[in-house]
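BUG: 3D viewer hangs when loading the predicted structure for this chain

Environment: internal workstation, default settings.
Expected: structure renders.
Actual: progress bar stalls at 90%.

Input used:
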Amino acid sequence: MTDMTSNTPVEARSHKPPKTEFMVYFAIIFVATLPLATLTWALAAIKSGSFTEKGPVARAWSQARIITPMIFTA
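Structure tokens produced before the viewer hung:
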């Protein structure tokens, strides 16, 4: 007789947020971080005298990519 209680196969549950919901949150966060990213980019450009750093859109995009998954994992 086989004891199936100790080695029961575990089904992998992947909890993926709906793509539409994720993109809505991403867009809201992106728009919200854009003004601050523009300000920090402008201050850094004035301070260094160079516009070679990441632009404000890239900064806001990276912030949104960091913040949005945190909402879905909480």
